[in-house]
Amino acid sequence: MFRLPAVLCQIRPASRALDVKFGANARALMLQGGRTVIIEQSWGSPKGTKDGVTISKSIDLKDKYKNIDVANNTNEEAGDGTITATVLEHSIAKEGFEKISKGANTVEIWRGVMLAVDAVITELKKQSKPMTTPEEIAQVATISANGDKEIDIISDAMKKVGRKGVITVKDGKTLNYELEIIEGMNQKCEFQDAYVLLSEKKISSIQSIVPALEIANAHRKSLVIIAEDVDGEALSTLFFFFYDRSPTLVLNRLNVSLQVVAVKAPGFGDNRKNQLKDMAIATGGAPHDLGKVGEVIVTKDDAMLLKGKGDKAQIEKRFQEIIEQLDITTSEYEKEKLNEHLAKLSVGVAVLKVERVTDALNATRAAVEEGIVLGGGCALLRFIPALDSITPANEDQRIGIEIIKRTLKIPAMTIAKKAGVEGSLIVEKIMRSSSEVGYDAMLGDFVNMVEKGIIDPTKVGRTALLDAAGVASLLTTAEVVVTEIPKEEKDPEMGGTDGMGGGMGGGMF
Q1: Tell me, which fold does domain 185-345 have in CATH?
Q2: From which residue to which does the signal peptide run (predicted)?
Q3: Mean pLDDT, residues 252-270 taken together
Q4: Highest mean pLDDT among 25-29, 180-184, 425-429, 431-435
Q5: 446-485 b/e with 16+ CB inside 10 Å = b?
Q6: pLDDT tens for residues 58-73?
Q7: Range(s) for CATH 3.50.7.10 in the chain?
Q8: Pairing of strands 223-227, 257-264
């Protein structure tokens, strides 16, 4: 008989109180919402924001039915567009509720909705144009950062490291935005013009690395050893001491004295082999030749090999190999690792030291990936006529298509209303104007959106519409919502009232 371990036998199932709402009541609760601008923080003063990502992640409602997440997926995929996704979803779901409550067929309505959504996305891709100038990159970043023109530092970063290069965001220690460019592979010692010895295996014998040590010593170069591990005789023969913060290696039995640092190879298995291969190509290392780097920086936590001396043609060849692998792989894990390899082989690494630019950076990446369309909700308005060519199979599908027609007007109307003008009139004027004309809410006037740089990433619009339709479909077809009832927290001061004294605060397990 199979017997559970004693420890598992002592585990008692945890019980959670659940609350259940049904039908229209559940759907109505999930649809409720409003404007949220001022956010109380657990520390410091409240902050005001127009950033949809920050707002959506800050809201944790006591009523769990209203707390069903609907906005974050768009940000995860496209980096921006949470407000667009939310207003679209609200419009689709609200109209869907009304039609379904009057007896319309739920399934057919959503077939009509998806017919319209697919048609809009097809038009969106047709109208999309690639970003070709640094100015366009800066415009996308500025719009995503709510008009902060200093955010065009992202454009500078992309210009310097390339569109495939790595751009990371860190908290800065100043009031200004800073850009730091690190040229090379992201693998951190303070050697200049060093040799690199790469090994897929563990180094245990000193004899196996003597040739490399002698070559480095003869050329008066520092040596970086990157291997699976260094142990045994090799480790015991080498004595490390620090002189002027540079690790120096002295060999007892050999007439060699030089600067050496040993680094454990990153990753494991095939991933480690691939990283070592990338390093070999970036530094020009070969089975019978040492690699070379312009600078090495090593700490106890990380390492960087900078300004590799590898052959540019070989680096480009490896770059293309990784891109081809990215195109055929379906594993998200493999894609993540391949993108890491790609980034390390790129021109360099850009580090943005700012308070909050992640949304702008993500939106810019989305624009680079799929191109740009008119901003301010104008692109969606231009796609409404394309829905007239769809032939619905029945009346309920026609209702679904009409829901999307009306919904496509909502983003532009919302922007106009926030600017204090009548949204429906603004939308009507935009639709009567030429294709690139839209409403600039900052100026309060109609302008050429392209010339003014009011543009949006195609991926943001596409993802927002798809997510809005998907979530609205879920909300309107849901008959039951199950949420966990939060436990009532006892007053900490009551912890010692049952004879335990005044310090346990909650009992023992």
Answers
A1: GroEL (3.50.7)
A2: none
A3: 70
A4: 425-429
A5: ebebbebebbbbbbbbbbbbbbbbbbbbbbbeeeebebee
A6: 444 444 434 444 444 4
A7: 185-345
A8: parallel
